[in-house]
Write a structure and sequence with these properties.
Elements lengths: L1 E2 L6 H7 L10 E3 L2 E3 L8 H21 L6 H11 L1 H22 L4 H12 L10 H9 L9
Parallel strand pairs: 1-3
Antiparallel strand pairs: 2-3
Length: 147
């Protein structure tokens, strides 16, 4: 499940998101989670990455592709569609926040702010403001669509 190397599509990811080359980045490519720089993955981040495993598996199953190319198709959609990428990341960031609420409630507020800062950052395209991300992370089950 945890692989200490680059995911198969690492070059494609970096072409679209050069900042993903920073240390401490994790990548999910079903059925594995990749840690290129061998950094430590917290339990909260693991909860986030497990969401992406489920998303990718569901995408693969939905495509009913005998060549098992659904994960690559998930990544292609992730790269080209800002809104879709944000929806995928919002679900992961919500799982991360829920981990803090459940297992370390005293630290949940501080971590909520850090999670919202990351989700609103250039890494994901700065698609929502920090305030919007705070609100959306706390609103479980609601879409990120505006309007």
């Amino acid at each position: 499940m945890i692989v200490y190397s680059r995911p198969p599509n690492y070059d494609k990811i970096l072409k679209a998101f050069p900042q993903a080359a920073n240390s401490g980045m994790f990548f999910t490519y079903y059925p594995d989670i990749y840690i290129p720089d061998h950094s430590h993955m917290s339990a909260a981040i693991l909860a986030h990455e497990k969401v992406h495993l489920k998303q990718q598996h569901a995408f693969d199953v939905a495509l009913n592709d005998p060549d098992d190319d659904g994960v690559e198709a998930w990544w292609d959609q992730y790269i080209i569609s800002d809104l879709w990428r944000f929806e995928q990341e919002l679900e992961g960031h919500r799982a991360e926040y829920q981990w803090w609420r459940t297992y370390k409630p005293a630290a949940r507020t501080r971590n909520l702010h850090l999670i919202a800062l990351r989700l609103s950052s250039p890494l994901y395209g700065s698609l929502r403001t920090y305030e919007e991300c705070l609100r959306l992370i706390m609103r479980r089950g609601h879409s990120a669509n505006r309007g």
